[in-house]
Amino acid sequence: MNNQSAFGMKGGALGFVAYHWYKFLPLPDADGGTLFKNCETLEGGAALMFGSWSPLRRWMEGPFDEFNDAVRRALESS
pTM surpassing 0.70? Predict the structure, then answer.
């Protein structure tokens, strides 16, 4: 998926397929602001290991949070 408001990729290994994409959504109340969404969807048998209850999910979310913070800081400093 690659268009004006989103881009993404698909990959997988070890029993699951991962769909990762980024979305840019305008915020009407933010005077030209944009919401940046970093999304991941997992499918396949191994994806069950990353359910909302799983410590693996929290482990995986850490780098996403760090990436999002780095993007925000870079954009806000420019």
Answer: no
